[in-house]
């Protein structure tokens, strides 16, 4: 049980709004895969998946145990495991998860298992490297993959996919188009030599926004579902899904010359009223946002974080704010606040969201 007062509220209406925003950008036949890896970008993958299960065609997680958790919560939708790892292939089958097979090592390990059990037409996905150079077969591997596939009825390729390296970046448009072109070429080889047609997909959130012509059969939406597009204009069309809240635990009045927090990093110049909030770097707040780099909201007013972010707490300046112990504190409730925290922490919203730790209570509203 988690009864922490520091809560991440997931806004179901916002999630639905964002999904519909992307749906309206897609051709009617284009399928939607919702990416719920890393606990649904720092929230709660089970809650998000339950909310979305009748609205999307597929889920994706990064690792096998993330998929197992969804199946244990009785999610029935197909789940693509992007990075299953050979050690976990038995669990993949046990929980009817669909592995991305990205190299001969894992492909052959899976075929061996499929042979032993034996499986029949088990859904697999093949990923091709078209320039990210992270996971994936090379196009030169195609003949060997095809000849292996011809000899088995234990697996069936449900999809072929690739991942773009810089789909958000207008300056890399040429590179991205090259990736898309190569992916189309790879797909053609399979369509020519297989007697069935696997689904094709290459676009993530920013790919959908920048390369609408490359939707193929399905798109993979992650950060967009959680409220972030490529730029401010797109982001303003989306709604914030992650609202991080806490309360004031204690209020102090400190005199000029007194200090606040570790290393005495804040020194009061005048009489200062401070509030202590039960959220710290162990909850996912970067230590880089202390010392007035960022603020929280109390009764709609900005309270700057003073001193260093502690493991379990922050202190904020509430000298000018009328408030009491127990009052609500908003750490963030808008994309602008998440952006500002990310900028101060020298990172991007992806990291700010996924940093929200297990200790924070998660609720879908
Ligand atoms: C994380 C991930 C996505 C989602 O990307 P967003 O930019 O969050 O939409 C899509 N595809 C793959 C392979 C991923 O790893």
UniProtKB/TrEMBL annotation:
UniProt cofactor(s): pyridoxal 5'-phosphate
Catalytic activity, as annotated: L-alanine = D-alanine
N6-(pyridoxal phosphate)lysine modified-residue sites: 37
Associated pathway: Amino-acid biosynthesis; D-alanine biosynthesis; D-alanine from L-alanine: step 1/1
Active-site residue list: 37 (proton acceptor), 262 (proton acceptor)
Enzyme class: isomerase
Domain of life: Bacteria
Alanine racemase C-terminal domain sequence ranges: 241-365
A biological process term (GO) from this entry: D-alanine biosynthetic process
Positions that bind substrate: 134, 311
Keyword Zinc carried by entry: no
UniProt keyword annotations, A-Z: Isomerase, Pyridoxal phosphate
Pfam families: Ala_racemase_C, Ala_racemase_N
The EC number(s) this enzyme carries: 5.1.1.1
InterPro entries linked: Ala_racemase, Ala_racemase/Decarboxylase_C, Ala_racemase_C, Ala_racemase_N, PLP-binding_barrel
CDD domains, per the entry: PLPDE_III_AR
Molecular function terms, GO-annotated: alanine racemase activity; pyridoxal phosphate binding
GO terms under cellular component: cytosol
Annotated family: Belongs to the alanine racemase family.
NCBIfam families found in the cross-reference section: alr
Known role: Catalyzes the interconversion of L-alanine and D-alanine. May also act on other amino acids.
Name assigned to this protein: Alanine racemase
